[in-house]
Hints:
The protein is of the alpha+beta class. 23% of the residues lie in helices and 37% in strands. The protein contains 14 helices and 59 strands. β34 and β35 (405-410) form a beta hairpin. Residues 808-939 are annotated as: Disordered.
Amino acid sequence: MTMASNTLQFKTNYAVSSKIEPFYKGGKVQINKDEKYILCTCGTRVNILEIATGQLTRSIEQDDQEDITSFALSPDDEFLVTASRALVLKQWDWRDGVCTRSWRAIHNTPVASMTFDPSSTLLATGGCDGTIKLWDVLKQYCTHNLKGSAGVVHLVQFHPDSSVLQLFSSSLDCGIRVWDLRSSLCVCVLESHYSAVTSLAFTPDGSTMVSSGRDKICTVWDLKSREVVRTVPVYEAVEAVVLLPEEGDFSQLGVRTKGLHFITAGSKGVLRLWEAGSARCVFSQTPPVSTPPPSGEEAGPEEEWSQRSLTYCIHLPSSARLAIVTAEHNILLYQLPALALQQQFVGYNDEVLDVKFLGKGDSHIVVATNSPQLKVFELASRSCQILYGHTDTVLALDIFRKGSMFASCSKDNTVRVWRMDTLSGEVRCVAQGSGHANAVGSISCSRLKESFVVSGSLDCTVKVWDVPEQQEGAGEAELQTLSVRTTEKAHDKDVNGVAVSPNDKLLASGSQDRTVKVWSLADLALLGVCRGHRRGVWSVQFSPMDQVLASASADGSVKLWGLQDFSCLKTFEGHDASVLKVVFVSRGSQLLTSGSDGLVKLWTIKTNECVKTLDAHQDKVWGLHASRKDDLAVTGSADSSIMLWQDVSEIELAEEQAQQEDQILKQQELSNLLQEKKFLKALGLAISLDQPHTALRVIKEIRRGRDGEQQLESTLLRLRRDQKESVLRYCAVWNTNARSCLDAQAVVQVLLRHHPPEELLQYQGARNILEALVPYTDRHMQRIGRLLQASMFLDYMWQKMRVTGHSSVETQGESMDTSPVAPATPPPLFIIDTSPSLEGERGRQEDEEGGEKEEEEEDATEENQEDDADVSVAGGKAGKNGKTERGREETEMAEESASGESSGEEDEGADDGAGDGRKRENGIGWSSEALPLQMELIR
């Protein structure tokens, strides 16, 4: 276990590898000329199914999402015309799925029937308004408007000889009208039937016609005399009639004489061959199984056959086959002359209730739908076997260990065991058991031997059935009986799920009473009860490796229970609705769950984490199963679809590693290109990697070099159109950031300069990109405008500082070089506050300390001049040292105050001149000696 866990690779993802979806939900079915494709309607689509592979090759869908009421494929396979409820006719190139022409149908009500003439020139449409229109599809106009039918024209058919120009139609009045297309008149009405005429069949020469109806008779007509040749009672409502070819040996079908023979398909669900001359049935198919009517009903009514009745029968002359369509939307191909079943296609599955892998190598799947029949699909060819046996809806399935046997349970209160022939792939029922008093909703098979099955029922009981040993040479008729080994009333409510442990020792049952119970299989003794779910339990499953049990509940949770003490070990919550199925994968280390929300979730048990959510279904996912190799999973849903999932964890891991290696190589190549300054290749590589940041790095590198703008222009213009589209898309992202907006604007400028607007607007998404560029560009322009305004203020301040410094310097004379002499007393630029405040005194003190006195005061006393000189010396020392002592500063301030008052009283102009040269910053004045140095620093 330890070694296995070390090498175990957890799953990370599943991908849908194939689908089985509805392709036919009733209506017309037609097969093309070379008999390779089946065309059938499914709501708003005409689906084209390839017969050889069973794959849906193309769906032709109406643009208006209206249901298709009828369609017709021309005999030469050239034209396909569809009619919808919107009263629109469309002509298609059906191989390519392209509509080549559409026109309004002149009918007042939807078209109910449609057919081409043998020459593929004329198209006849029968409407629900009782009129018939004929269209020339080559010249594209309406040629005839035939009126006179009573009610819906549900059948139109041309005479097989195109030169005769006759059209046959039938409506609700049960007559067959014959129209002469030359005169556009109804030449006669063939009356023989007393209910709706369902089909017409002509002999190759066009002299004889056979009609069928739901009045349980077929009529043979002589078209020359327009008289009834023979009326054949067939004792069933006939939906289709086909003439047997005159050439060929059909002795296996009971044909002993020459003459007209025809095959009927109707409500009894079997093909029967009739001899027209003697009006007797010479061959009748054996029903797949003689199904008794449900209890309480008599064995005679047609409802007994309604599910198996046939609706269409088409002869394929090239391959000598018959195509049969059943009321359950199945298409069956029979090979003539033995009338052996060759292929079966299921057009509509209804709700899928359970699905399991089957056969050697999981080559098949068996599906339980909302039907008494089981369907076994071969995954390679999509061919299907339909298994008859149960008389009511099959609810659950389970597979034995070897994969060739499986068991089913049904609403008919029975359990059946089926075996697949490993060579032919044919499946038949080998054993049946009855004993439950209500519907059997769950079943589980033995894990070691094909010896027993366990069933859980709505009657609250669990039964263990012994499976008798199968004899190799046993015939199909030898249906054995399952005997009940043990019965136990297990729960207080419906038993929804049962599971057998891998060693066949334990049995688990989950019920609507919200409990999970564990039993001993030997005697059905109760071992423990697991309580914790808040609603009913839908599914239980034993781990294949550990002694744990998983349960899925309608409360939206999955719980793991320990089999030692039956306690809850883990709870997984993530589904928004009921969890319907749970299975173990990855050797018991992960879980797959499906729920009513249409989701399938993958869980890792160790981390309690939902690794992946798979969303492909539109309705409840009732069926979930994993293959024995653990590489596939299959799901079946109430939306009538079956999905086959493939484990792509290793594939994605390998792709991710390869992608990382490729990215590393390309990043290295990009660095080399940038180093070599091969900017064009570098930019192209960044665009191919779809890395906007790397492309921006290249753009910045180009603009950083010499002649960057010219280099950027030449590089951008050499890009391809798709590369320019990518760069323009990147610019919308770069422009949102102030750091890269200039690069984006440079690129946009080049593109706008060299490409006209009409060309740029043709770029993919150009309008949206340009709309995204505009608001951020406006924001950048506003920011630059604000920055420009702020720089203008600095320029203004600088100019003022220059003017102020100039006038101050001029007045000093001998202190420094001066410009031409300015007026002696210029007008003051700043108003100096001369109030005796502390700041004013300190500023005046510092000003007088820093500069020399002008010799303008001739009458100043010598004592004041000496004091000024002493103060200047003291101020110079203080400025040189960068700091002054507090006591000296106070002394100097007192001296400066005295000298300043005397000088200010004598000449205020000198103070003004000196004050103009002062610039205070943070309360410290600039002296006239320090000003030139500061000016030089600012410059």
